[in-house]
Amino acid sequence: MLQLLILNALLAVQPISNSSPSLAETKPDAKHTTLTLPNLPSDHLIRYLNTFPTLKQQLPTNATTRTESRACWGHERNCSAEARFQTPHCPGDHTGWVPSKKEQVETFYYQADFGYIQQQLSELKPQCMPKYLSDSSLECTRYLRFCRGRNLLIDLRDVAKRKERIRYHMDVLSPGQILGHCELNRTRLNAEMDHIGSALQSWGPELRNFDVLPHPVLASGACDLVVDAPTFIMKIDATYNMYHHFCDFFNLYASLFVNQSHPAAFNTDVQILIWETYPYDSPFRDTFKAFSQRPVWTLSDVQGKRVCFRNVVLPLLPRMIFGLFYNTPIIQGCSNSGLFRAFSEFILHRLQIPYNPPLAQRKLRITYLSRRTRYRQVLNEEALLDHLDANEDYVVQLVSYERLSFTDQLAITRNTDILIGMHGAGLTHLLFLPNWACIFELYNCEDPNCYKDLARLRGVHYVTWEEPDLVYPQDEGHHPEGGAHAKFTNYRFDPNEFGRLVAQAAKQVRSHKDFPQTMTLHDEL
């Protein structure tokens, strides 16, 4: 009912699309006003409006949700556990980890859910303070994992002189090549430099070069280029590996909440600047369209210039110590992060990935990911699929995702009940499965926690091979740098055991509270 009220209210106030920066107009109470709402799923939009009560009051008078909804994300200080986007699921034993079940839930919440955002917000401290509105500013969280600034100058003239291309470099800037006109607390800034062991852990390698400009940046005459659009400068991980690149996208999404001090926080009229000189290319590049309607820049687009940013964000990074997604420490016995679910829904909504309800007669849609790589191929793939095809309760499709566009891949994943595949980055698709779905990592190749933990974070059921005597490697595996390694060979699997595990996954899917228990004629139509 709450979603219907919101949708009815917004018939006169349409969210702006990703592709158009134009504003949507409405006439509440016969007065002309202009109201801009971000393109968000309805559950998200409700919470967005509650975050900005002044904006909420501009809704038409038929928007009764202005007073009825207390829904919140979970990072807000006044957000009750009942109103959170989602509550972690912690059926496992807490003994040996924390003293009580309540502490187990809260530990997970602050490790991997909106509690992590709350911690980042509580850590934000000014590093360089303005005196006047035209001055610069810089504030950061602990260890410089997230920062945002205003009216900052970054001198990139030396980048054009470098012979080697820049990627994962910690020496892009030299002292005095990032500047602001503000009161710098250098002692405080230097105290946050503990996590600069690598480029993707902290913004310390760049901000250790921060210095003060004696005149306001925009009036100094030192700007070769002024970027008016809010800019997210990103240091990114491996762009051709879905697991690692989605560390980037997930942390960018999380950073929107840390930066959510203005109603424009979810707008797409922002600039993405990748902190390297290699041309940006990735099979997952379309994901950036969920965040920005502008072409992605790299340092090559601005090198040789002193670039002044009116508003700049240095978002959470992909390989932070005790970070999000990669290196996330997860307490035992818990799953279902609302932050991960929100990310999934946000991407699917922004990229307009179609949704189809489950099949009639509660048949299960099984997607089998076939590898076309040199290693981790399933040598008796056909026999395994024949075993599934014999079951009338399954509708099975074999796909090779590398042959499809990323949005086409997502369209399959979103409408899959059981996703099956060998250990590999393609299993990152589990992020975009329905809530009731199951991921079956056919064989984890002696890396047992990677996708098991990711499934826990997303909140989908996880199954993997259980009987070592019923899996048959082609050989011991040969790592390129020498020695045996389970990831560098191919495998055969016992079809009957395979069928048993799929049946186990099917039972979990059908028993999930979100999976339709009955299918009516209306549902089928």
Written overview of the protein:
This protein is an alpha/beta fold. Helix content is 26%, strand content 16%. It has 15 helices and 20 strands. It has helices at 2-9, 42-51, 53-56, 65-68, 101-112, 114-123, 186-190, 204-207, 242-258, 338-350, 381-389, 406-414, 450-458, 495-511, 521-524, and strands at 25-26, 33-34, 125-129, 137-140, 147-155, 178-180, 183-184, 210-212, 225-227, 231-234, 271-274, 297-298, 306-314, 364-369, 394-399, 418-421, 438-441, 461-464, 471-473, 491-493. Strands 3, 4, 5, 6, 7, 8, 9, 10, 11, 12 and 13 form an eleven-stranded mixed sheet that branches. It has a five-stranded parallel sheet with strand order 15-14-16-17-18, with helices on both faces. Helix 5 crosses helix 6 (114-123), helix 6 crosses helix 9 and helix 11 (381-389) crosses helix 14 (495-511). The longest helix is centred in the middle third of the chain and has 17 residues, at 242-258. The model is unreliable at 1-32 and 521-525 (pLDDT under 50).
Distance between the termini: 23 Å
The number of distinct helices, counting runs of at least 4 residues, comes to 15
DSSP strand count:
20
What class do helices, strands and sheet pairing give?
alpha/beta
Mean pLDDT: 90
Q: How would you summarize this macromolecular structure in one to three sentences?
A:
The chain is α/β, with parallel strands linked by helices.
